[in-house]
Amino acid sequence: MIRRYFILSILLFSSLASLIGEALPALDRGVENAIHPMLLVDERDNSIRYANPACAEFFSIPKDRLVGRNFPALIGITAPSLIDLHEQMLSLKTSDDESLYFQVGVQRVGNIGTPYFMVMLQDKSEEQRLLIRNRQITIALVATSLLTILFLILFLVFQSRQNRRLQKEKQKYEDSFLLLKQFLNTDSRYSYIKDSDGRFLTVNENLYRLLSCDESSILGKRIEEVANHDFASLMVESDQEALNEQRTVEKETLWRERLYKTTKFPLLLPDGTIGLGAFAEDITEQRNQEQILKENLTRTAAFSQLLSSSIKDPNNQLTNVLEEVCSINGSTLGILLLIDEESGAITIEATREEVPLHNLTEKQGMVVPSSVAEHYLNQQRDAVSFIINEQVNEEPVLSYLTGKKITVENLLVCTCMAGDTLSGMLLLADNRGGYNETEGFQIQLLFSGIWANMHKAQNAAALEASQRDLRLILDSTAEGIFGTNEAGSCIFCNASCLRLLGYSDERNLLGKNMHQLIHYNTREGIPIDEETCPIRSNLSKGYGIALENEVFWRKDGTCFDVLCYAYPQMQNGKITGSVITFLDNTDRKRNQEKIAFLSMHDQLTGLHNRTYADEAMTRLDTEEQLPLSIIIGDVNGLKLTNDIFGHTRGDNLLQSIARSLRLSCRTTDIVSRIGGDEFLILLPRTDGDEARYIMKKIEEHLEQDGIRPGKRSIALGSATKSSMQKKIQEAFDEAEDQMYRKKTLRRTETQKQQLQDLSEILYEKAPEERNHAIMVQQHATCLAALLHLNDEEASKLKRAGFYHDIGKVVLEPEVITSKNRSTLVQEQYREHVSAGYRILNMFEETVDLAPLILHHHEWWDGSGYLKGLRGTEIPYFSRLLRLAEVWEREHLDLATKEHIKQILTKLSGIEVDPHLVERILNAL
User: In the sheet where 99-109 sits, what is the strand order?
Assistant: First the structure.
């Protein structure tokens, strides 16, 4: 560029001689033929006086039309002087709307008085475009680099937050899993949780012991890998049924001669898959007791039928009764011995042998020597049953009858009494389940009744005795018993029947239609037709039935649940009536309902429990229930309430919050307590706005209910599942995350409110404590000034002065205000020190004050409490706090310096630090 300007200058100066004296300077051929546009411009008005041919091409205007035009206007600028444009870069829009970039060179030429400017325009468009393009490329590269760096930073931040969230979720899962495991281990039942592949996730200790396994050998494995084939098959079948049908399955399973009741149900696992939960309990003893009860009822009904039947042939009747008794109690051997009242001879009256090994039928009528039965006779003097439930190596009667040593598995010997006289004995043997005293007593009464009936025709007294024995059998049982004829009218009833039905005299029942009297309606008041009555219709078919879902009606018009057994009474193959035994089943059903209720409800609050909530989440996770909202709440201050006021107050807090949750929610909502201080609310067909409205209602109700500390006594979070693409567990996690964020954000505010509430509770108990706290705080501030403590130390001492007696909140008002405390009251009063220490340790704002408060009642000579510290063993600030309390107690703020000196000198070295006293007195 310098070279080009040099050439221009030569051309201009070479023409200078010819310019003098002429109107316009004369330009040589070099200017005329220059490739760059060159113009001669009048300095006075900036008009163009000459333009070389290159200008016409440059401006796309004919050369002759350029002359006379204003040069600054032509290039689109405003310039006070053209000389200012020298070496400037300018741009100009061409006819095709492109920008033309050019550099201006300006040189003053001409005579004095006629000044001109020689202007040369050099096209720089290509260079300028290249420069602009390079700048754009550079900017693009820089922007791309910045975006890349920003993306990397955002990715690293997101990854870090994701890792923290995953770590938090993992810890929460592990804590929940440990809590679940501890809960299951305290349960007396057997329990486990499996994943969707049938592998064990957790197993309680009872099941480990049952399978003879430890934790490492069962977790992560299937049942087929840790148990024998038979047991595994039983478990897998019901597992698959519960998973495939997605419902709770209850079954009873027999294994190793034990009966187990299993309850299996699908549940939502933390990873979002459907797993299986199961509880099992050993109900063998329960079933055994129920079986014994049923057997007793069966025997009672059967024996009652035998007693109530007429006796046409006494001898054959004894044989029939022996056969029936052996059949009922499962005895394979039976021998009835009759004893002659005068001679004492013992005769075989009847026998029963399931398998004819000993030919006992041929022995009927034989006389057995008294020496053979002497052992039994001695045992039966008190007229009680004789039972041996173990192997008898030699049974004397059977051994005598067969002539060889006979062994039996077990033995029952019952007496047959005629009044006070022993008239016979009944020997029963080889019962598989063994015998019991109730059974022996019933059989004894039965045969006594039969024996009395045998003498009915001979002796009226015997008839009366038989009736007494029959009544004794009936009235000795706790079960209600009554008999009916073919028409359903009552022909007899026992005392328990009268008591259970609310009658005092059997005449109120005898001859009455029992269906119309006690079984005419269901519990709901729906009439029961006598023809379709299950008791009547089944009896008409000739077989007994057992019913447990019926109700009987009392005399006063109330009804009760019954466990009922009904048996037809037969005579010559024809039904002549029936015998019904029944028990009040109310308590049993209530217990079953209570167990069912407790399995799905929280015992403390009455809300649904975690098991029900998990099942409900799975059940409601359908498109019909969308949008499905979830609210999760975590109680604030529960640990504080439990630790300071006891678990009873904590339970009251939970119950009060549960009540507010129920009242704030709709009947279609499911409110559950899923942890110690956590609640879950499932809101089917509820969007996010409605869920937030319900949360607001909950907070308002808590505020109205007076639950401390106000509406923040429970932190709430919500989330909504609006489509089936979103997993229900994701919504649960979102609600829980929102709840924890709120809880964290309000932690400091909540703690301040809780601390303020504790102070207010104390001041409500003892109003004078407010003034005491303020005064000790003021004295502490004054002491800090006297001792020249720095700002941080002074602030610490001031706060300690205010909160030093916060522990009194756990005391009763009369203990706080008592002046003449007994030893017991003094011990209770001293608890406020440790209570204050615990309270202040719970809050971030006051945790640094807790050690000071713990020792603020220690005395310099060691006679204080709680630990009896002395001298410099007492923390420095605790000694200062003791001085502040002394200042308040002795009213030293109103005393003269002499009195202050007198009091402090008196207490120096005893209650307070003598060195501090010296410094304070010097400062005064």
Answer: 48-51, 38-42, 116-123, 99-109, 89-93
Q: Under a CB-based contact definition with an 8 Å cutoff, are residues 572 and 305 in contact?
A: no
Judged against a pLDDT cut of 50, whether residue 12 lies above it is answered with no
Q: Which two tokens stand for residue 509?
A: 């029942």
Interior CA angle at 450 toward 449 and 451, to 5°? 90
Q: Looking at this protein, which amino acid is placed at residue 164?
A: R
Residues 6+ apart with CB under 8 A from 599: 263, 611
pTM above 0.70, yes or no: no
As to burial, measured by CB atoms within 10 angstroms (0-12 exposed, 13-18 middle, 19+ buried), residue 910 is exposed
Q: Tell me how far apart the alpha carbons of residues 320 and 325 are, in angstroms, rounded to a whole number.
A: 9
Helix (H) or strand (E) holding 582: strand 574-584
Q: Long-range contacts for 148-156 (Cβ within 8 Å, ≥24 apart)?
A: none
Task: For residue 470, give both structure tokens.
Answer: 């029959």
Alpha helices in 705-790 (DSSP H): 728-745, 747-765, 768-786
d(CA 334, CA 411): 10
Q: What is the pLDDT of residues 689-739, one digit of tens each?
A: 999 999 999 988 887 765 554 344 788 999 999 999 999 999 999 999 998
- Model confidence band, residue 95 (pLDDT cutoffs 50, 70, 90): low
CB 497 within 8 A of CB 482: yes
pLDDT tens-digit map of 866-894: 899 999 999 999 999 999 999 988 888 88
Compute the radius of gyration of the chain from its Cα atoms: 54
- Give the distance from CA 338 to its chain's centroid: 69
Side chain identity at residue 523, one-letter code: R
**Dist. CA 359–CA 646, nearest whole Å:** 77
User: In angstroms, how far is CA 822 from the centroid of its own chain?
Assistant: 46
